[in-house]
Amino acid sequence: MDPEFAAGIAPLLGQKLPRPTVSELRDHLDKVASDIYKPYLQPFLPPESAYTVLNRTVEVDDGQFSVRCLVPVVADERETFPVLVYIHGGGWSVGSVELDDYFLRILCDKLKLSVVNVEYRLAPEHPFPTPLDDCLAALKWTAQNTSLLKADLQKGFLVGGESSGGNVSAVLAHIARDDPFFRDRPLTGQLLQEPLVVHPDAHPESLKAELRSLKENADVPPLSEEATRQMIAWYNPPAPTDPRFSPLLYPSHHDLPRAYIQAMGLDPLRDDAVVYEKVLREAGVETKIDVFPGVSHGFHYSFPAIKAAAKVREGTFRGLQWLLRRED
User: Residues 233, 215, 272, 235: what is their CA dihedral angle, to the nearest 10 degrees?
Assistant: First the structure.
């Protein structure tokens, strides 16, 4: 275990806490964002003149949701940018656009990258497939609003997210590959940070020996196996083997956009990320993976000042550069 992470997490080790309600989890993650993560990142924010913030509502058949858009400001007002559609984590049931807001503002400025941060509707009030459908609608909305976003999809059309957001992003990469809507405006990259890619009860027999981390790291805070299963229950996918929840189980991974993947060494979902990278690579997809040893799922939100968290943020920056083919 990373020494700095171990010191921070020591008070939680060995505790058997009562199972929190979804409301309690939402309050907790909101406080992590407002009291820890955003205050840490605030000194690194670019000046407000470096980007424009646009909040928009997206209408769908059964309601609406919002997106927070970040657009770089440069001297040439005609300049266009690649775009990232970002899906926050939180087990499909907690979290909001506030969680990654400051980090995305930093990326928007440093990479000259337009960002669409999706405030999708949450389970259990809005179970599967609503969060997925909202994010697909956001992806299509982005493609239809390039002028507003000053986006050029040929420069880069990325989808990405953290944890459950990585799960949804991996699914969307398959949907977009097969949907005629995206034929002339295909995705060019996927950012998959600590994703769940297969239901714990649907591990393929041929890969079970490689999918060990759910048990090995079952009780490493903050994400336990029990909490993972609870969030899946709230999301309520129709079947463990449905590829719209378990994208590892799509019959084909050919012709997907290049993927940058992150995994944490002590994460119950570590092997989801590692195995998924292998499966994509074997299908001919360009991949890049970083495994950060000695730390657990989403640790960088609660402990943003430790060296390992800085490495994760730098990895995300470098990974996006690679997705945008700017690594040289």
Answer: 10
pTM of the model: 0.97
Work out the percent of the chain whose per-residue pLDDT is above 90: 94
In the chain, which residue ranges form alpha helices assigned H by DSSP? 3-9, 22-31, 38-41, 101-111, 130-144, 146-149, 164-178, 213-216, 225-235, 270-282, 299-302, 307-323
Residue 265 and residue 2 in contact, taking contact as beta carbons nearer than 8 Å: no
Which pair of tokens denotes residue 199? 């239901």
| Cα 191 to Cα 174: distance, rounded to the nearest angstrom | 14
Annotated active-site positions, please?
Answer: 163, 267, 297
Amino acid present at 133: D
The average pLDDT across 167-186 equals 98
322 contacts: CB under 8 Å, gap ≥ 6: 258, 260, 288
For residue 238, what are the CA distances in angstroms to 125, 127, 139, 234? 16, 10, 23, 12
Q: Which of 56, 229, 205 is nearest to 144 (CA)?
A: 56
pLDDT one-digit tens code per residue, 34-89: 999 999 999 999 999 999 999 999 999 999 999 999 999 999 999 999 999 999 99
Strand partners, 55: 68
Tokens representing residue 42 in the block: 């605030």
SS3 31: helix
* Position 61, amino acid: D
Neighbours of 318 (CB within 10 A): 15
Cα 59-156-328 angle, rounded to 5 deg: 155
Mean pLDDT of 202-224: 94
pLDDT band at 10 (very low <50, low <70, confident <90, very high): confident
Structure tokens at 130: 């609503």
